[in-house]
Amino acid sequence: MIDRILRDSRAWGVMLAATLTIMSNATITPALPGIQAMFPDNPNAELLTRLLITAPSLVVAIIAPFAGVMVDRLGRRLPLFTGLGIYLLAGTAGLYLQSLEAILASRLALGLGVAGIMTAQAALIGDYFTGPERGRLMGYQLAAVNLGGLIFVMTAGFLAAISPRLPFLIYGLALPIFPLLWRLLPEPDRSAEQNPGTAMPGGGGEPGWPVTVLIMATAAALTFVVFYAIPTQLPYHLAEIGLEDPRYAGEVMASMMLAAAVSAVISGLVRPLLGRIGTPVTGFLLLSGGFWILAQATALPLAMAGTALIGSGLGFCMPTFITTALNAAPFNRRGLVSGLVTSSFFLGQFLSPVASQPLVAQWGYPAAFTTGSLLFLGLSVILAVTLKHRQPHVDNTARAQ
Questions:
Q1: For residues 140 and 143, what is the distance between their CA atoms, to the nearest angstrom?
Q2: Within a domain: residue 199?
Q3: pTM (2 decimals)?
Q4: Using an 8 Å Cβ cutoff, are 376 and 284 in contact?
Q5: Is residue 196 one of the residues assigned to a domain?
Q6: Are 294 and 356 in contact (CB under 8 A)?
Q7: Minimal CA–CA distance to 5: which of 142, 138, 179, 189?
Q8: Does residue 211 fall inside a structural domain?
Q9: Is the Cβ–Cβ distance between 234 and 252 less than 8 Å?
Q10: Total tally of structural domains belonging to the chain
Q11: 277, 255, 298: which is closest to 382 by C-alpha?
C-alpha cells in the first residue's frame, strides 16, 4: 500500500528540489584528479581542487541563516526559484571557465543557489506536513537526495573518464526541474502564522525550542565534519590502493548513496520505535563501522561495503536532525530554523578537509578513516547523554515524528 503522503504532489515537489542540494557539491567528486591534472602549472592546484567540493559549503553555511529569515519574511517560492536560477548558471560554469580560480569562484556562487533551495524546501516540508507524516517525508526526501546523488555521481564518473569538465553538465538538470517545481509547490497559507492552533498543528513550538535546535545543529555540523572526508578524500585513497579509474570512485560513492536512500526510508518508519535518541545513535554506530571498514579496505568490494555502512548511518542521522529541529520550532521561525540546520550541514562540509587533510598528510588515509570511526563512536555517546536530559515534547503520540 502506498503511503498517503506519496499521493500528495507537494511531497514529490520538495523531494525533487532536495535532489539538487545536500550532495550537490559531491557531484564532481570523480572528476577531481582529472581537474587537478588540467592545471599542472598552478602551484595551488592540489588545495584548490579539493576546495571545489567544499567551497560552496562555506557560502551556504554563511548565507543559509539569512536565507531562512528571508524565507520567513518573503515567503518560500521567491528564495526557492531564485536559488534554482543561480544553481543552474553557477553549476554549469565549470564547462567553460579557463582557470581553476574562476571555477572556484563559480562554486562559491553555487553555494548561494543551494542555500536558497535547501532553506526554502525544508521550510515547505514544515509547512505542508505535520506529525508522523513530516518525519516520514524527511526519510523519503533523503532517499530521493541519495538516489539522485547515486545517478549523478555514477554519471559523473563516466563523464569524467571522457573529460573532467563534463560532470559540470549535470547541474543543467535544474533547467527542466524549474517549471515542474513552479507547478508542484504553491506558497503556503501564511494565515497559519496568526492562527497556528488550527492551520498548523504544533505551530507554537515546544518549550525551550532554541536549545533543541542548537543541539541538532551542532550534531549535524560535527557529523558532516567527519562524514565529508568521503567525497573529499576517497578518490585519492582509491587511487593509492590501485583503483585509479574515476569510475571506481563513482561506484563506491554510488554504494554509499544507495544505502543512504534505503536507510532513510527505514529510519522514518522505525523512528517511532527508536525515538529521537535511538535513531541518530544507531546512525552514528553505523557510520563508525563504515569508516573502520573503509580504513581496512584494499580492494573495491570492501571499499563499497564500508561506504554502504556509512550511507546507512547517514540515512538514520540526517532526517532526525532536521525533523527534530522543525518539530520543535514555531511556525513563524521554521525558515530560520531550516536555515540554521542547513548552515550546520554545510559548515561541517567546509571544515572537513581542514580537519582531515592534516591527518592524511601525517599518518595516511587508513589512520584518518580510523580516527573518523572513533569520533562517530564518541558522538553517539555524547548525543545520547545530551538528549536524555531533554523531555521529548514533540515526540509523543499526538505529535510524533
A1: 5
A2: no
A3: 0.73
A4: yes
A5: no
A6: no
A7: 138
A8: yes
A9: yes
A10: 1
A11: 277
Alpha helices in 185-299 (DSSP H): 191-194, 196-199, 209-227, 229-240, 246-296
Q: Which domain holds residue 386?
A: 4-186+205-395
Q: Residue count of the chain, please give it.
A: 401
Number of CB atoms found within 10 A of residue 4's CB: 10
Give pLDDT tens digits along the chain (401 positions): 677 788 888 989 988 888 887 667 777 878 888 888 898 888 888 888 878 887 887 888 888 888 888 888 888 899 899 999 999 999 999 999 989 999 999 999 999 998 899 888 888 887 888 767 777 787 788 788 777 777 887 788 889 889 999 999 999 999 999 999 999 998 887 654 444 443 344 456 677 788 888 888 998 899 989 988 888 788 888 888 888 777 788 788 888 888 888 888 887 777 778 877 788 889 999 999 999 999 988 888 999 999 999 999 988 888 788 778 877 778 777 778 878 887 888 888 788 888 888 888 889 889 999 999 999 999 888 888 877 765 554 443 333 33
